[in-house]
Each structure stands twice: as C-alpha cells, then as structure tokens.
Hints:
Elements: H1 2-23, H2 26-54, H3 60-85, H4 89-100
Helix pairs in contact: 1-2, 2-3, 3-4
Amino acid sequence: MASHLINIGTLICIFLFTLVIYFHNTPALYCVMVLTGVVNLSIFSVCYEFAVEVAYPVSEAMSAGIVNLLAFTLGFTMSLTFSFVINDRTTSLIALLILAI
C-alpha cells in the first residue's frame, strides 16, 4: 500500500512539474522540486536495498555507485531537457559544457 502511495505521489509531482514549467512560474517550480524530493526520498533507500540484493556477488559499494550514477544521469538529462523547454540559454550552455567535458 505504501509503495502505491509513493508511486502516485511521484506521478503527481511529475505532472505538477510539467505544468509549472509550462506556465514559467519559478516560485512554484521550487516548491514542486522540494515536494518531489520529499516524495522520492523514501524511494532511494528501497532502491539501494534492491540493488544490493539483485547484484549479490558484487559489493554493496558497487551497487550503490551504479544506483547513484543512474540517478545523477537521469537528473542531469531532465535538467538539460527542461532548460531547453523553458528556453533558459545560460543553463543549457552550462549543461552542454559539462557534458562535453
């Protein structure tokens, strides 16, 4: 039951994030980002445990590193994508420079 609530909360946060980006409301964007962080915080511990259990012969540090790598890559990709959506050229150029390095 709790996992269903977390999934529904995540979907609601993604929907709100998309609406806020569309309407260019910066204060609401920060509020939605905080709400998304609170909702997704409980998912991270479950992901770490699941990654350790699935990749049993591999050490825990390697499993956690892969989960972190995927999370940071997804976050970077979403930031880059939405910076193009809201036409924020400075953020887009900085992200592309980081990607080039």
